Amino acid sequence: MQAMANVTRIANENNIKGRGRCAPEGLNCTLSGSAKGIRAFCQGLRDWDATFNETDFKVHGCAS
Fold first, then answer.
1. What top-level class would CATH report for the domain 2-54?
2. HEC secondary structure over the chain
3. Which among 15, 28, 37, 60 is most buried, taking Cβ atoms within 10 Å?
């Protein structure tokens, strides 16, 4: 529950919307937001937990 609360907080801080599943095996999300917001969300996950430093985030349609 704490992990989902942290992911939700990071998403809210960056105005990210969408769906996410949080399980012991990992995190799976389909999200939308501005390019800046999506990048900040990914960085927020890395800042929160070093596990995400090795994550290959799949980002589509995210212009500079």
1. alpha beta
2. CHHHHHHHHHHHHCCCEEEEEEECCEEEEEEECCHHHHHHHHHHHHHHCHHHHHCCCCCCCCCC
3. 37
